[in-house]
Amino acid sequence: METTVATIDFDSFDHGSADEKKIVGNAIAEAFRRQGFLKLVNHGIPRHTIEELFRWSERFFALPDAIKAKAPHPPNPIPNRGYSGVGLENTSIHGSQENKVTLIDLKTFLVTKALFDQECFDQGAEDDRLYANIWLPEDDLPGFRSFMEEYYRIAYQCQQRILAALELGLGMAPKTLTGRHSRAENELRLTHYPLVPVKQLRGGNCTRISEHTDFGTITLLFQDAVGGLEIEDPLQPGRYRPIESTALDEMIVNLGDCLQHWTKGQLRSTRHRVHIAQSDLDADPNAILAERFSVAYFAKPNRSCSIQSLAAECPPGEQTVGDFLLQRSSTTYGYA
Ligand SMILES: O=C(O)CCC(=O)C(=O)O
Description:
With about 325 residues, the chain is α+β, with helices and mostly antiparallel strands. The chain is about 30% helix and about 20% strand.
């Protein structure tokens, strides 16, 4: 049974009266309190931009492995930049058995030891102070980089408007959240889940993405119609329910660990995963599950902020967001 997640029309935050803006802010805060997830429509990112985003993603992942390997993700979780493949494909990127093992570990959650059936491309801000992006040579996919940089800016503007609405909903002073995201130290991820036999996903040692929470503030996600995304039922821990999009431009927004910390657990960072769509549960085990595409924009606070409080500068003795994110990446991917 599909979980009931609030669908919020963002248009009246952008164009409505002060009262209407407050109603939108309250609805966002309430959905994050209750479930940690919501769906947003009329969020201001045009449908044609999202369609183009998915077309670029399809073109990128359709490239031969040897080309994608020209933008390799480093063989550790940080910096989270460049292309990561699946299983054997990773060997072709780094060329050695040792690196192959490292990359399989990178994409394997310690909890389940399940191998991810996915490949992805990760990108940060163009002017990120710490980590440079890892691009393909322009000739290998002309126009990809400029579109992706433009989309990163569009998603950032959208994220800031959502956070401004949340400030209203939580009764925070303006800029309490947006001001702590002034550097756009975020991550944009294209994910491709390749064709996979149904029986492989049912076997228990392979999944599309294992259960996890997101580390940052909020995530703006677009998914195609294949299905498989599930969120943990807040009232029945351990029970996952599907969350589907009714249109490609319906945005799924979920809360991450940083905001859960800042609100002392008042808002929830909910576990989610990608496995097999409900409609495919009874499929013939020999059937092949359709490939799936999604695009996630992970908004994160400036690394210099405190994870423990909303103090303007991280006070001595408190952990910075940068250190927190580093720790979360290391423990999640088994590097701690
Ligand atoms: O592909 C999806 O729908 C979700 C992806 C996700 O949860 C992630 O990349 O953290």
